[in-house]
Amino acid sequence: MTNFIEPLVTSRQFHFNRRVALSDTDPSGRLRLDACARYLQDVAAFDAIDADISAIGIWLLRKNKIVVEELPTYGTEVKSMTYLTGSGRAWVERTSVISHPGSGKALARAKALWVLTSPETGAPISVPENLYGIYGPLATLHKVAIRDGKRQSLPPEASRFVWQIRISDQDIRGHLNNATYLEALEEVLYREGVKLTTNQKMKCQITYRESTSYEDPADTYFMISRDSGEQSVNIYFAKNGLVRTSIDLKIEG
Known about the structure:
Strand content: 25-35%
CATH topology of the largest domain: Thiol Ester Dehydrase, Chain A
CATH superfamily of the largest domain: Hotdog Thioesterase
Helix content: 10-25%
Radius of gyration: 18 Å
Structural class: alpha+beta
Distance between the termini: 16 Å
């Protein structure tokens, strides 16, 4: 279970409204999971630009935990909001929420770990103190640790499936956009007959350890299992037997 921290009165909160577009939905009209991740990514990126912290280094997404209560449908207006809820030496924890503008009901929440890196070397660099003055004391009250451990090996029972990276999938950093990985998840769900409803409750964790690009693609694998009324779908982007990025989706019911 993911515990989410509510913002303080003194926390900087950034938000904007948008409607679910045709390009965001599957044939049933529900918001796709990759589009949901993109909404959460966009509000974080726009906040960094608005707060003028995007120039202090390159922010790389390391881990993203998304909890979905409901998936909105085509034409629905939604509100995206974000604020900082924790930090470490070279990273911050950012909480983002997609909700109904009128009722305030949360449709999806995400807890994301963003690492600050040097534009020259790509190595992690310390988060400057003035950032906490912008975002308020909540980020310094909650300390977050990164535990890397060994690189995950590809599970031998995982099945290969063909998923082509397009040049349009790359972002301005020259690697596969963070949200685009979930397009592969949507592909597996469709091919394997796993249908998601608009009121489907689910938890999804994406762990990014090494980037993938058009010039340096990874092979894609999946596993599906069911246990205690919960269905699990795992996606692995791997090369030479080592996992670069993994997705773990757990669907209730």
